[in-house]
């Protein structure tokens, strides 16, 4: 059976990361968060990592070349299933991704759009806590860790991301509306929508149904 590649699209705070964590618990599929890959790269001590940190902090997109370079091995890997969460994020990245996949005789099988209304995002983003060690996501009200401030998975202290504040969120929402949203049209033939306001187990069931029914 050929391996699948899927894309997750959604506004910041749409619960893409949380759903990916849930999927990874139950299904043998690699969930790759473009943001996590960039934050890992940003931890290094290089000029490139400093630039990444600054760009993320401003709520802007890093260059298309950079994110494609960082995800290159995963894009080219045909031995496992992948979900790309947060990549591609504009038409240029999607076109380049298509080019690379085509040259590999590969393709994107499905694009999942997690749809949430913008008025829910601030509460979600301000309450979000993340583990800088294993990248697990929590929310102080909706998905609290067992012990306050501590990651259930690895015991590390949880942090608030620097870009999870009201001012930068506005820029991230604008970037989504001006650039990423165009991908809904671009991928219209393989697009599935999940209501981001549903409970996590309901979203997982809908996802599983889509995934199980993807053709060869
Ligand atoms: P969210 O989806 O909540 O905005 P992410 O963790 O996916 O958070 O992304 C955080 C930041 O990382 C983005 O605001 C952007 O600066 C950068 N980033 C993530 N994915 C991409 C991408 N595909 N292209 C360029 N920059 C990206």
Instruction: List bound small molecules.
Output: adenosine-5'-diphosphate
Structural class: alpha/beta
CATH topology of the largest domain: Rossmann fold
Tally of strands: 7
Q: Supply the number of structural domains.
A: 2
What is the typical, i.e. mean, pLDDT?
Answer: 95
For the record, what CATH class of the largest domain applies? Answer: Alpha Beta
| CA(first)-CA(last) distance | 7 Å
Could you give a quick summary of the protein structure above?
It is built from 9 helices and 7 strands. It has helices at 16-26, 34-42, 47-57, 64-76, 91-103, 121-126, 166-180, 182-186, 200-212; strands at 5-9, 30-33, 82-85, 110-115, 128-130, 137-139, 191-195. Strand 5 (128-130) and strand 6 (137-139) form a beta hairpin.
Task: Kindly list the characteristics that best describe this protein.
216 residues, two-stranded antiparallel sheet, alpha/beta, 2 domains, Rossmann fold, binds adenosine-5'-diphosphate, 14% strand, 9 helices, five-stranded parallel β-sheet, globular
């Amino acid at each position: 059976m050929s391996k699948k590649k899927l894309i997750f699209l959604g506004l910041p705070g749409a619960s893409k990361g949380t759903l990916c964590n849930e999927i990874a618990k139950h299904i043998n599929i690699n969930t790759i968060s473009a943001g996590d890959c960039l934050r890992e790269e940003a931890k290094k001590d290089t000029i490139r990592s400093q630039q990444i940190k600054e760009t993320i902090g401003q709520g802007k997109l890093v260059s298309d070349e950079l994110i494609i370079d960082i995800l290159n091995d995963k894009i080219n890997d045909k031995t496992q299933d992948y979900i790309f969460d947060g990549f591609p994020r504009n038409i240029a990245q999607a076109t380049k991704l298509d080019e690379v996949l085509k040259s590999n005789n590969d393709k994107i099988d499905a694009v999942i759009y997690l749809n949430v209304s913008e008025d829910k995002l601030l509460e979600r983003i301000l309450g979000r806590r993340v583990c800088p060690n294993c990248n697990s996501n929590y929310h102080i009200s909706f998905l609290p860790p067992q012990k306050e401030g501590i990651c259930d998975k690895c015991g590390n202290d949880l942090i608030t991301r620097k870009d999870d504040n009201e001012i930068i969120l506005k820029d991230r929402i604008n970037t989504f509306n001006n650039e990423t949203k165009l991908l809904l049209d671009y991928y219209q033939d393989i697009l599935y929508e999940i209501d981001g306001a549903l409970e996590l187990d309901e979203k997982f069931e809908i996802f599983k149904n889509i995934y199980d029914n993807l053709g060869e």
